[in-house]
Amino acid sequence: MLDFQLATPALDRSVSLRRQVTAQAMQVFGGWGYREIQIPLLEHFDALKQGLDEDQIARSFRFVDRAGNLMVLRPDVTPAVAKTYAYQLRGLPLPLRVSYANKVVRIERAFGAAQVESYQLGAEMIGREGVVADVEILLVVLEVLERLGLRRFHINLSDHELARHLLSSTGAPRRIRKVVEEAIFSRDPDEVRRILNDLGTRLPYIDAISSLAGLEGGLQQLDWIEKRLPTDRELKKRINYLRDVEGALDALGYGKKVRIDLGELDGPGYYTGIGFSVVSEGASRRLARGGRYDNLIGQFGVEAPAVGFSFSLETLVELLHPKMAQGSRRRRSHEVVAVDSSDPTVGFEEALERRRHNLSTRIIARKGDKI
Amino acid sequence: MTRDRLRLALPQSGELETIREHFQACGFAIPDLSMPGLHHLGDPLNCGYSFEIFRLAPADVGTYVEHAISHLGVMSTDLLKETQSEVWRPYTFPFGQYPMVLAAPRGESFASLSTRPQVRIATPYPMLAQEVFAPRGMPVEVVNVSDSYTACLLGLADAFVDRLIDPTPMYEHDFRVLEVLGHSRLKLVVNRALGSRRRIAIQALVGALEACQPEAPEPVEIPFEVDDEFQPGPYLEWDEENGESPVDVTDRKSV
Q: What's the ipTM?
């Protein structure tokens, strides 16, 4: 039986920190023209299921309502946004930029327990493809991280299309491709080679695919794969696309923050192009994940390319909390206003004056006070 | 942790001495690990990072690495799967490879186990055991124990799923392997949120480990039930005059 870690907001600074982080992120989203969207937590399973992969369905909470409908608590925001666009927002001028700060409910491993409720802060751009859209999304992510005062983070940039192309070139059945993908994501080149050798895959493809699992990443990873398969046009196209995205970010001064890392392939099955994750050495889990999903909205009947990302609010707060808590301890002595119960007016006037200037204020009762 | 250190967790297991020798061959002056705590090793790879080594219970290594308390560790894939640790595995050690087997007392088969209303499987790997039997539709009760042999010998379980390190106890207790479920391998495990500089240092470590690989040991012999048919077993004759029990006449024939 799973040990459910139910959402129990602690009565400490993490609660206000959540609100601050959310406000700052939403402000950045708004600044880039992403309008906030509200989507329901409770969905009809049949209406949402075509946007969910097997793993997401397995981790979701489903139940039958009083009318006999199978319902699901939203396990991921992006498919719900895709459905909302296809059913309600189609016809609006494109590109459509939306943002959200929403709860998701799903079984998720976190510190040995199965975290059920978590919050995602994210943005999606619907109706535009190409380098401009992909770079814009990454710039929004970078600004949020900068605005939150984070310094030690990296964005690992990969390409799901490139990996999928290489894997399908092996002719391996879907189940085996999935196992190889998992080995790539686990950065286990030996396992990738073992599986592909057993399949009888040609050596240049074994070399190229196992190099996706390499630790170092960087542009040299692209060069190396290109050299192994110089005649593969589709591969070259994807490699050049990634070079363009990386080059644009490098020219904008983010070269050290964004690195090519072709093994960063986990995540939901709907990603079709670039994929990225934000990591920081101080956090045990990724801070954000995103990518291009050009076929997801089509699952709901309207074809539209899209790209987006979501931050994990819990991980951001986990990372920021110690820093903020230290800051709060330093400030505390300046916040105290003593109020005497025999003549509380003076003390409270001082407190009100401080609050008019938006200064933090804590009331303490003076010695001898009856309260 | 300071930025110029790499912390390595080693498992307190049967392979610890072999792991230690492998790292020593790469220039790591590893002290006696029976002493608890962190052991500082300097920068044996000249990669700009000094190494700190400590030992842990084998099943805990993945948790420490996943939560960035240790940057690196050594852990077997059976435990990685069981603990579901989300870590990278950039290097496979040439030793520490063992078959994961389903075994039962000699004479049992999959068919004979299937006929029982409820089969009890003893294992230190309950998740793996569930994964094996769930798709087959066999109603099994998985009993989580650390000593599978005792569980089966004393009747707690009908069969067991475990790592086969040495076939001798299996012969001694008259158990046979019904199926090899996979192989457990020993991996260098790495935290997934490392920055570029640390990744380069770890790549240098992987390169050093690959360059100084010891020879892989012989694969473990797997005692299958079917192999018994080809073994020179006891010659049995029916004693029709004195009783119904078969009589071992091996010695008579060899004379």
A: 0.76
